[in-house]
Write a structure and sequence with these properties.
Layout lengths: L2 E7 L3 H12 L6 E7 L4 E7 L2 H11 L7 E7 L14 E2 L5 E9 L2 H10 L10 H11 L4 H9 L4 E9 L5 E7 L4 E4 L3 E5 L11 E4 L5 E5 L2 E5 L5 E2 L4 E2 L15 H7 L1 H9 L3 E2 L4 E2 L8 H6 L2 E6 L1 H18 L3 E5 H4 L10 E7 L5 H12 L3 E6 L5 H5 L2 E4 L12 H20 L4 H22 L2 H11 L4 E6 L4 H15 L2 E6 L17 E4 L6 H12 L5 E6 L11 E5 L7 H19 L18
Parallel strand pairs: 18-19, 18-20, 20-21, 21-22, 23-24, 23-25, 25-26, 26-27
Antiparallel strand pairs: 1-4, 1-10, 2-3, 2-4, 5-6, 6-7, 7-8, 8-12, 9-10, 9-11, 11-15, 12-13, 13-14, 16-17
Helix pairs in contact: 3-4, 4-5, 7-13, 7-14, 9-13, 9-16, 13-14, 14-18, 15-18, 16-18
Bound molecules: 6-O-phosphono-alpha-D-glucopyranose.
């Protein structure tokens, strides 16, 4: 949440900062700002809205932003509305210290009072401004010492980049509970909250751990631990194909990512299927392989789309691996009293690997001494490093705020995990082989669904003015009802709700009339007839119905207003196919409503605050 970047090197800082902000924009986009030091003074420009507004403002104001040192920020508001005053970077009273911050300072009100008593005047409503004034209060002649002193008083989570006009060729950065990394380029160093802002310039990355401070100047960088001793850290080489962070001819990242799914599914399972043994190989679980035999309960934690993927996993793991599973919102798990024993494993699902609630849930589980596992897309992310063992998705960077390819990749990894754990238990070779074989067929089947893009767009044209929508499904596709509704509301701001089809009659059906359409996920599976009855119930109340059905199911046309067909698959894998029409439908509903598809209002991709 929020994106931060800092640059120091032989080139002009501004282009790198702006390019970085555009890459980080998915983390928050309600206001943005840059601060550049030209060797004498620090000049700032801020704007409300997306980075393009900042671009315009920079051209309009015509300030000299020519320096080689600078910091920048794109904001997702937590404390204070999106406004110029609240946009980062923030400064102290003397306007010498400038900083950008990601996270939340929990004791900011208390610190603000204290600083006000000492004469500090605040210009914004943010928690961040308190940090700037605090460092100013502690500053004598060394920014690092002032920062160290200030950190002792801060409670909460932060990633901070800071500079001081009197130390014009230095940037300091520190993190606690919020991601921050340092990219080491050719005579330039870039600090950012996300690798996507750095990857164009270098693939050499140092990941900062909590409480580590990095001091960067033109000569290089030094890292200090929480005792402020200098330490050396491993330089990692990141492997991201630069094309993965471009739109490659698609109008939106979301559409590109939807169409990438045949490939991302292939990438997620590459080298992991052992067809001849009806097994899967998961290198990331090798170290805990024997421990996993003892596990008799799994709690899956996640947020948003990752949570919905977890619900599909619950059906899979219970049916095929015979392991009882509970799926919990990470934000709830962290504050309840979970009953955990040594045979319970807590599994986090997270695309970014940075979601604050999911991270806190894992920390809570570790505190209780249970085995922690992860299904994480972002390599080297905080949750990936925190869990005892895990499986990477290898789905590539997901830029669109609304998650698509990460979802299908999470579900396929859950299927792999099901076979892995199932084969450790009672799952037969034949069952394992059947699942593994069908997993290999999925990319082709997804391609067939993608070919119906135009038909799905036509359906969206009929419904895009709707004010409400219900999504309904049963068993493996019940979580898809939630995911479909989530996609529609987050992208098009149309009110949408997902229900298990069987629950409609217990209340929600009261809302149905000719203006309240429903989308049923109704493949020919073990609950097909039950779903059909539920469709009839909607039809007899004049509700319009779109169905996603199995190819060849002609009868369903009689009770549906529109049908989208998906190829037949194993019941447990159907969600991976059935979600594709839902993604395309939501995409076109948003496009037709002129929404900002890749950056829906009020949202952010990586939610690093509670
Ligand atoms: C945000 C995003 C969602 C995502 C959720 C969890 O709310 O907008 O698309 O599903 O965070 O993110 P994670 O990175 O943990 O999967």
């Amino acid at each position: 949440m929020c994106g931060i970047i800092g640059y120091i090197g032989q080139n002009k800082a501004l282009p790198v900062l702006l390019d970085g902000l555009r890459r980080l924009e998915y983390r928050g986009y309600d206001s943005a700002g840059v601060a550049v030091c030209d060797g004498q003074e620090i000049i700032t420009v801020k704007a409300v809205g997306k980075i393009v507004e900042l671009d315009k403002k920079i051209s309009l104001e015509n300030k000299s932003l020519q320096g080689n040192v600078g910091i920048a920020h794109t904001r997702w508001a937590t404390h204070g509305k999106p406004s110029l005053e609240n946009a980062h970077p923030h400064c102290g009273c003397k306007q010498e210290i400038w900083l950008a911050h990601n996270g939340i300072i929990e004791n900011y009100a208390e610190l603000k009072k204290l600083l006000e008593k000492k004469g500090h005047k605040f210009l914004s409503e943010t928690d961040t401004e308190v940090i700037a004034h605090l460092i100013e209060e502690n500053y004598k002649d060394d920014l690092k010492i002032a920062l160290q002193k200030s950190l002792k008083l801060l409670k909460g989570a932060y990633g901070i980049v800071v500079m001081h006009a009197k130390e014009p060729d230095t940037i300091l950065a520190v993190k606690k509970g919020s991601p921050l990394l340092v990219g080491l380029g050719d005579k330039e160093t870039i600090i950012a909250s996300d690798v996507s802002a750095i990857i164009r310039y270098t693939d050499k990355i140092v990941y900062l751990e909590d409480n580590e401070i990095v001091k960067v100047n033109k000569a290089g960088f030094k890292i200090f631990n929480s005792d402020y001793e200098e330490i050396s850290k491993e330089i990692k080489k990141v492997e991201i194909d630069k094309n993965e962070i471009e739109k490659s001819g698609f109008p939106h990242f979301m559409l590109k990512e939807i169409f990438e799914q045949p490939k991302t599914i292939t990438d997620s399972v590459r080298g992991r299927l052992v067809l001849s043994e009806g097994k899967v190989k998961l290198g990331g679980l090798e170290s805990v392989q024997e421990k996993l035999r003892e596990i008799n309960r799994i709690i899956i934690v996640g947020c948003g789309t990752a949570y919905n993927a977890g619900l599909v996993g619950e059906y899979m793991l219970e049916e095929y691996a015979n392991i009882p599973v509970e799926v919990e919102y990470a934000s709830e798990f962290r504050y309840r009293k979970p009953i955990l024993d040594k045979n319970t494993a807590v599994l986090a699902i997270s695309q970014s690997g940075e979601t604050a609630d999911t991270l806190a849930a894992i920390k809570e589980a570790k505190e209780k001494g249970v085995l922690t596992l992860g299904i994480i897309n972002s390599v080297g992310s905080t949750i990936a490093r925190e869990v005892d063992a895990g499986i990477y998705n290898h789905a590539g960077p997901e830029i669109s705020v609304a998650s698509t390819k990460a979802f299908t990749s999470q579900v396929i990894i859950l299927a792999l995990l099901t076979v892995f754990l199932g084969r450790q238990r009672q799952m037969s070779f034949i069952t394992g082989k059947r699942i593994v074989e069908e997993i290999e067929n999925l990319p082709n089947k997804i391609n067939k669904i993608l070919k119906q893009e135009k038909d799905i767009k036509k359906i969206a044209k009929k419904y895009y003015k709707s004010k409400n929508f219900a999504f309904l499904g049963r068993k493996y596709n019940e979580p898809l009802a939630f995911e479909g509704a989530l996609k529609l509301k987050e992208l098009s701001y149309i009110h949408a709700e997902g229900f298990p089809s069987g629950e409609m009659k217990h209340g929600p059906i009261a809302m149905i009339d000719k203006n309240f359409p429903s989308l049923f996920i109704c493949p020919q599976d073990s609950v097909y007839e039950k779903n059909i009855s539920n469709i009839e119930e909607i039809k007899s109340r004049s509700g319009k119905v779109i169905t996603t059905a199995t190819v060849g199911d002609e009868n369903i046309k009689n009770i549906s207003d529109q049908v989208i067909y998906i190829p037949k698959s194993l019941e447990m894998l159907t969600p991976i196919l059935a979600v594709i029409p839902l993604q395309l439908f939501s995409y076109y509903m948003a496009v037709l409503n002129n929404r900002d598809v890749d950056k829906p209002r009020n949202l952010a991709k990586s939610v690093t605050v509670e």
